[in-house]
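okkk here we go again. third time trying to get the S-adenosylmethionine bound version out, last two times i messed up the smiles copy paste (missing a bracket lol). double checked this time i swear
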Amino acid sequence: MRAGRALRGDWSVLSILRTTTSFLEERGVSEPRLSAEHLLADVLDCRRLDLYLRYDRPLSPPEVESYRSRVRRRLAGEPVQYITGVAGFRGLDLAVDRRVLVPRPETERLVAEVLEWARAKAARGEAPAAGWRILDLGTGSGAIACALAVELEGVGLVVGSDKSRPALEVARANAARIGARRVAWVEADGLSAFRAGAFHAIVCNPPYVAETERFALPAEVRDWEPAEALFAGPEGTEAIARVVEDAPAHLATDGLLAIEIGDRQEPVVRRMVEAVPGLELLDGYRDHAGRARGLLAIAFQRAAGEA
Ligand SMILES: C[S@@+](CC[C@H](N)C(=O)[O-])C[C@H]1O[C@@H](n2cnc3c(N)ncnc32)[C@H](O)[C@@H]1O
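finally!!
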């Protein structure tokens, strides 16, 4: 049965959700129920959970038609967020498309770690009067930068940088849409564009997939998301290594480096951090499955020219 034939006739919200879920499931599409719900909520212009408040609402033929075309795209492997054009991140609705990585739940945790560090520092009276400058290195959709700009009281400036100009266009539009102030965008490769000691924190979710793991990735990631957001080199840790080595020079004394890592990279990255003069490992964090997903380190040497 094709998506077209499966979705003809008279439909209510609940019946079309049930049919689509089993249809997508039989064809091996990941998260079939969630996909069906997001796509239908997009067509009906409501929140996903509100579907269940109107479960017996009949769909008009044009609604069924729009839904069918979305289901067809999902069947072809396209991520739900690219189809709906929206990804949720720490309560923000961010516009996303193929120019940027879809922000992930584990990255929400990276932001939470930075907020916790910043709030603890402020509680100790260590917040600089002029406000903090934070860099989101490799900002993509602007998810981390926007969340920090919205959630971190007293932040002076959040800079989102990326070497991808198309990604920066998405990030800039997201900040404008959600009304995030105190953000700036810089097109730059790594940290080279920034002066010594420029930031009180550098937050980074770098590409960390090894080229050799390309075909182990789910097709909906490998074939749809930007390669420059995923792949770092033969080992997978190349971009992380560059950030770890370059960060101390660009951090103020006691500044934070917070970096997301792949779930098997913690021992290697820990050794990298320990080997870099001027950085001291502070902490690490794990995801819900207990896998190490990020490291925090502190810059302890005053960089020349520091603000
Ligand atoms: C894993 S994505 C993270 C996107 C976003 N921060 C997030 O967490 O959803 C990595 C981002 O880093 C950017 N990037 C890759 N290499 C870079 C480099 N050398 N300098 C600056 N940005 C880079 C990519 O274009 C991509 O947007």
